[in-house]
Design goal:
With about 230 residues, the protein is of the alpha/beta class. Helix content is about 30%, strand content about 30%. The two termini are about 25 Å apart. Bound molecules: adenosine-5'-diphosphate and magnesium ion.
């Protein structure tokens, strides 16, 4: 069964000092947890805002967001609980070691198996020999591996990644891209990734290009219209 996030006629704008910043209007799209999606486009066009709206973290100015899970419509809060996040700046807690950074989302939910599950994920991302290292004792690539493990440890339906390779060298970016896609495939997780990297966007099943006020599907590897309507 496929779970999906749908945007219907979504518009988003900000008002700053009487100035209106319009990002997009009447945007409709459907994201399935069976597929991977890239969102590309120039800086300031609204990619991060769209990602936050899809994840239920930001309410759009107009239109609606709905989350269908096992044939039920769930709330934005439930969508957030079924989502994992990966950021360009890693956003690990500096005072916690790698293992405890990964365990944190589970500990916050009171999961008694938090550390066991975190250790499993530390191994999945190839970092078991760095479990006691704090973020400042890890390379950028290693920090992003920890962040990937932290995103997947809660067994999310969707992982949202905002420029996850933006702070990494070319070779590390390729390794991190491989890791994210393989984790999604193995765990049946939908991936939505904002990126400037051609290497990364070309891996996604679908690629959306944002340009001023518009979102267009520019690549559809699956050659099917299922779940795609802009
Ligand atoms: N919370 C906010 N309040 C006001 N303006 C914002 C806010 N978030 C983003 N913006 C503005 O909206 C535009 C799009 O931002 P963003 O979604 O971060 O773009 P991108 O990720 O494509 O670079 C930018 O001009 C940015 O300054
Ligand atoms: Mg951004």
């Amino acid at each position: 069964m496929s779970n999906a996030i749908s945007l219907s006629n979504v518009g988003h704008h900000f008002k700053m000092n009487k100035q209106k910043i319009s990002l997009f209007d009447n945007l409709s799209m459907k994201i399935s947890d069976k597929h991977s999606y890239a969102i590309v486009g120039p800086s300031g066009v609204g990619k991060s805002s769209l990602l936050l709206i899809l994840a239920g973290l930001e309410t759009p100015t107009s239109g609606s967001v709905s989350f269908e899970y096992n044939d039920k419509t769930l709330s934005n809060l439930q969508l957030r609980q079924k989502s994992g996040f990966i950021f360009q700046q890693f956003h690990l807690l500096p005072e916690l070691d790698a293992l405890n950074n990964i365990a944190l989302p589970l500990k916050l939910k009171g999961d008694k198996l938090a550390l066991d599950k975190a250790l499993f994920w530390l191994k999945q991302v190839g970092l078991e020999y760095r479990s006691k290292h704090k973020p400042n004792e890890l390379s950028g690539g290693e920090q992003q591996r920890v962040a990937i493990a932290r995103a997947f440890v809660t067994e999310p339906s969707f992982v949202f990644a905002d420029e996850p390779t933006g702070n990494l060298d070319e070779q590390t970016a390729i390794e991190i891209t491989e890791l994210m896609f393989s984790c999604c495939k193995v765990n049946n997780t939908g991936l939505i990734v904002v990126t400037h990297s051609q290497e990364l966007s070309s891996r996604a099943d679908y690629c959306y290009q944002m340009s001023k006020g518009k979102v267009n599907l520019v690549n559809n590897k699956l050659d099917s219209v299922t779940g795609v309507a802009v």
